[in-house]
Specification:
Blueprint lengths: L12 H9 L13 E2 L27 H4 L2 E5 L5 E5 H16 L3 E6 L4 H15 L1 H7 L13 E8 L2 E3 L2 H4 L3 H11 L4 E3 L6 H4 L7 E4 L3 H10 L3 H4 L9 E3 L8 H15 L6 E7 L7 H10 L7 E10 L14 E11 L6 E5 L4
Parallel strand pairs: 9-10
Antiparallel strand pairs: 1-2, 2-3, 4-5, 5-6, 5-8, 7-8, 10-11, 11-12, 12-13
Helix pairs in contact: 4-5
The protein binds zinc ion.
Zinc ion (ZN) binds next to strand 5.
Length: 352
């Protein structure tokens, strides 16, 4: 989750997008432990809405940054982390409680300003071009980390800092103990496993969200629902996923592809996903691979995969490529990957 350099972020699309939107990328400026941020508004009139929804389709409220009060801390690896004030107090209580059980955590990153996100977007655009930047970097204004209420934890095990995503994923039993205590301090887990089509992100056990209400947090956590579902921002029901049978790909490889599709689908505001199915090994032809390679001459794609999706668009879809209030069936999604990278969506739509 650390953003050591821009290059290190060139991982698979969804993971990278999650890193940039959800995680990492805190600017490192040395400060005293827990000092008031210079930006902490003394002129603050009314407080922030702790139940605010910020995701791929819900933008940070315009006056958010002027209302926000933050604190800075320095974590165990020496990075400066800025957090909303009450969220930080609650985090300290959670941390102390976890320590009683021998679990040690620290803050990897919390608040990132819209301006910081714009800088990352500009750097990527300059280095890799606009298409790649738009595909890889979260749109400034649409990251929950802008709120200061989203916190990325990391683990400290036997005195060692475990900060990389893949390493942290190796401790599911520790995460479940952490998750069990979140609601007691007004936090929820934000990006649940298998709910990518709602949240737009893959599973992130480290990304927690402060909502300043213990009862509501307990309700959300005990029902095992996403924040979107609690707020009624997602209207769909259960999604059917059919991985079919393949002699080319293992089910885990197909699952990784579906996560990419679901992450992208979540940015189609108001669209309701019904089903996704593997289009079959017969769709994966040499001709199609060649065509995709030709459309993406800079890539080194060696494998492709196709999925078909059924979904329904809302009454007023903001997406110009889709008709409003319509059932789409057998909508095509093509993904490709190189010998050493994850799946990337290369095209979608009819005739894709
Ligand atoms: Zn995060």
């Amino acid at each position: 989750m650390k953003m050591r350099s821009i290059i290190s972020l060139m991982l698979c699309l969804c993971l990278t997008a999650a890193v940039l939107v959800g995680c990492g990328g805190n600017a490192s400026k040395p400060t005293e432990n827990v000092t008031e941020a210079a930006t902490a508004a003394e002129t603050k009139t009314d407080g922030i809405d702790y139940m605010v929804l910020v995701n791929k389709t819900h933008k940070l409220p315009d006056d958010w940054e002027e209302k926000l009060e933050t604190v800075h801390m320095t974590n165990s690896v020496g990075d400066d982390v800025e957090t909303e004030k009450k969220a930080y107090d609650a985090y300290l209580k959670l941390k102390a409680d976890l320590e009683k059980d021998g679990i040690h955590v620290d803050l990897d990153s919390a608040r990132r300003s819209v301006a910081d996100q714009q800088r990352i977007m500009d750097d990527f655009t300059k280095q890799y071009g606009k298409d790649y930047a738009l595909k890889t970097v979260a749109t400034p204004g649409y990251s929950e980390h802008h709120t200061g209420l989203a916190l990325d934890l990391y683990l400290i095990i036997d005195g060692k800092d475990i900060t990389e995503n893949e390493d942290m994923m190796q401790y599911p039993e520790i995460w479940s103990k952490i998750h069990a205590k979140l609601a007691d301090y007004g936090f929820i887990l934000r990006y649940l496993e298998g709910r990518e089509y709602i949240t737009g992100y893959g599973y992130e056990p480290w990304h927690i969200r402060y909502i300043d209400n213990v009862d509501t947090a307990k309700e959300i956590m005990s029902k095992d629902i996403t924040f979107e579902e609690y707020l009624g921002a997602y209207k769909g029901g259960k999604v059917d996923i059919d991985y079919g049978t393949s002699s080319i790909y293992k089910e885990d490889e197909l699952k990784d592809a579906v996560i990419q599709i679901e992450c992208r689908f979540a940015s189609l505001d108001g669209c309701v996903l019904k089903s996704i199915r593997y289009a079959g090994d017969e769709a994966v032809t040499d001709e199609k691979l060649k065509a995709i390679q030709e459309q993406n001459p800079d890539s080194k794609y060696t494998q492709i995969v196709e999925f078909l999706m059924d979904f329904h668009t809302p009454e007023n879809t903001g997406d110009t490529t889709l008709e409003s209030d319509r059932d789409y069936t057998d909508y095509q999604w093509w993904l490709a990957r190189t010998a050493d990278s994850g799946w990337e969506i290369v095209s979608f739509g009819y005739g894709a």
